[in-house]
Amino acid sequence: LMPLSVRVDPLLTELTALVLKAESTAIKISVLDAIGTVMSMGGTKATAAALESTKSALLKALMEEDESIRASAASSLSKLVWFLEPAAVMDAALDLVEAKSSGGAEHWTQLCGRLQGL
Fold first, then answer.
1. DSSP 3-state assignment of 47?
2. Taking Cα atoms as reference points, which of 58, 67, 63 lies closest to residue 31?
3. Are 30 and 41 in contact (CB under 8 A)?
4. What is the DSSP letter of 22?
5. What's the burial of 66, exposed, middle or buried (CB within 10 Å: 0-12/13-18/19+)?
6. From CA 59, how far away is CA 8, in angstroms rounded?
7. Helix, strand, or coil (residue 94)
8. What would the pLDDT profile of 64-92 be if each residue is shown by its tens digit?
């Protein structure tokens, strides 16, 4: 359906919301994979605002404890960055490098997620 669709933003918005509220690992992975597919097939049709909100959700998913979620988020992020402006790509890389850990000491999964994102 992606080659036939003219409007990608509503789909990215819905998928972004789903990945942020999904509780199940399997659902998160499926939604993250769907984001990657949308980016592969229709990334050129997405607006900067939709790309930015999706990028934020993917960066957040890179900090999840589950390795499969991090891998899927990294894969989708690698597809998304092709459609960002160069400055936005640099911002995403800086976000990964400068991200603060959620606790006192950085958890190894957060570091792993950052490295996968890079």
1. coil
2. 58
3. no
4. -
5. middle
6. 20
7. helix
8. 888 899 899 989 998 998 898 888 777 77
Q: What are phi and psi of 52, to 5 degrees?
A: -65, -45
114/93 Cα distance (integer angstroms): 9
Residues 6+ away with beta carbon under 8 Å from 42: 2, 3, 5, 8, 11
Which residues, including other chains, have CB under 8 Å from residue 11's CB and lie 6 or more apart? 5, 38, 42
Provide the percentage of residues in the chain whose pLDDT is more than 90: 48
CA distances from 93 to 26, 32, 87 (A): 27, 19, 10
What whole-number distance in Å separates Cα of residue 43 and Cα of residue 9? 10
